[in-house]
Amino acid sequence: MSAREGTLADLLRRLIRTSGPISVAQYMAHANAHYYATRDPLGRAGDFITAPEISQLFGEMLGGWVADLVLRTAGATAIPRFAYVELGPGRGTLARDALRVIRTAHLAPEVHFIEGSPQLRKLQTQAVPDAIFHDSTATLPDNLPLLIIANEFFDALAVRQLVRTQDGWRERMVALEEERFIPVEGEQPMDAALASVQTDAPVGTIIETVPAAAAIMQDVAMAIARQGGAMLTVDYGYVQTRIGSTLQAVRNHRMVDPFFDPGNADLTAHVDFASLANVAQDAGCVLYGTVQQGVFLNRLGIKERAHALAAANPGQAKSVFSGLERLVDARDRQGMGRLFKVLGFGSPQWPPGAGFSPEENAGGTFA
Ligand code: SAH
Questions:
Q1: CA distance 238 to 276
Q2: CA 18 to CA 50: how far, in whole Å?
Q3: What residue owns the CA closest to ligand 1's atom 3?
Q4: How far is ligand 1, taken at its centre, from the CA of residue 112, in Å?
Q5: How far is residue 298's CA from residue 317's CA, in Å, rounded to a whole number?
Q6: Which residues does ligand 1 sit against, CB inside 6 Å?
Q7: Residue 173 half-sphere exposure, CB side, CA atoms within 13 Å?
Q8: Residue 209's beta-bridge partner residues?
Q9: Cα of 7 to ligand 1 centre, how many Å?
Q10: b or e along 25-49 (b: 16 or more beta carbons within 10 Å of the residue's beta carbon)?
Q11: Could you tell me the distance, in angstroms and rounded to a whole number, from the CA of residue 157 to the centre of ligand 1?
């Protein structure tokens, strides 16, 4: 942004001064659009690190999952045609690692990326030169099975917050206190926006919904039900719908105040897996389940792959095993293997994807 236009914070201040408080969802949408458009946020020099940036094992396992499912569906007949689709591919690392495995299995999918950031599109083209870019899911191929992967994508979408006040439900808004952004309760009654109004919820209760996530999920799940294919959504979040604000900001690998300096920290909200799974099911897909990342990767054989990789590159063995450990770590609640969940679903015409067990299909019982 040029000096003349000012920073995003200045822009939002002017907007709020002119037209009043904006919703938390609008605030988050503006902040993240600016944030992702102006930098590469990933890695040690950036603000946060993701599973594919920790170890190539992550993308390889997901690529193996895709290849296994496509080959089992096709049987011994023809060479299957399909599209490998990623939502928010970051640096393109996951896709590069996954496609290496997929191509080793003699499969040659088209590659389609949904990416909003021009800056990240450049990095993704370097990693995967044949990728075709889309602004939204609306333009994805309509004549091929879609194998879709979304890692840490849904958590970046704008969250809408409703807060219980003395006078019923209100939207949570962002106002100004002098120069500072602060969350406030909106003035419009919002009771009608809740499916079942929880009149007995204590004052201060916050309910979150992510309309953009539901819309994207419905679109891709309908396409999968129609055209064939499957999807894996990996994110941190909860399996049973919860109550409370999960909006958070990360900068330089540290938690910061989400209302300080919009556009210069990564804003996220926890992903509500139960809601996303419902949307996919209503769209006609079969749920495979929601499982902890560590359990999923172990079932796919990540340890065996790590040993093979270390044996082939003895000089790298230490970093291979430390990467493995971080991806599957489930010793405490903060371990990636436990904090992150994997939601899988697919076309009712296809066999189920690997790594899920039937008892998880109800939505899971773990926190
Ligand atoms: N999947 C990658 C990157 C996660 S960061 C990884 O695991 O490393 C979130 C990604 O989603 C970025 O690529 C970001 O630019 C993209 N993104 C965020 N909001 C988006 C939106 N509304 N539309 C399209 N892409 C979006």
A1: 11
A2: 39
A3: 90
A4: 14
A5: 18
A6: 32, 36, 42, 50, 52-53, 88-90, 94, 114-117, 120, 151-153, 156-157
A7: 19
A8: 160
A9: 22
A10: bbbbbbbbbbbbeebbbbeeebbbe
A11: 9
pLDDT of residue 364: 44
- The per-residue pLDDT for range 297-324, each reduced to its tens digit, is 999 999 999 999 999 999 999 999 999 9
Q: Where does the chain show beta strands of DSSP type E?
A: 22-23, 83-87, 110-114, 132-134, 146-151, 160-165, 168-177, 180-189, 206-209, 229-238, 248-251, 254-256, 266-268, 271-272, 286-292, 340-346
Neighbours of 268 (CB within 10 A): 24
pTM over 0.85: yes
Nearest CA to ligand 1 atom 16: 88
d(CA 10, CA 8) in angstroms, rounded, equals 5
Report helix, strand or coil for 18: helix
Q: Are 173 and 22 in contact (CB under 8 A)?
A: yes
**Geometric angle at alpha carbon 232, from 110 and 335, rounded to 5°:** 130
Q: Which atom of ligand 1 is nearest to the CA of 234?
A: 7
Q: Over the stretch 2-40, which tens digit does the pLDDT of each residue have?
A: 444 579 999 999 999 999 999 999 999 999 999 999 999
Give kind and range of the element (H or E) at residue 74: helix 56-74
State the Cα–Cα distance between residues 91 and 325, nearest whole angstrom: 22
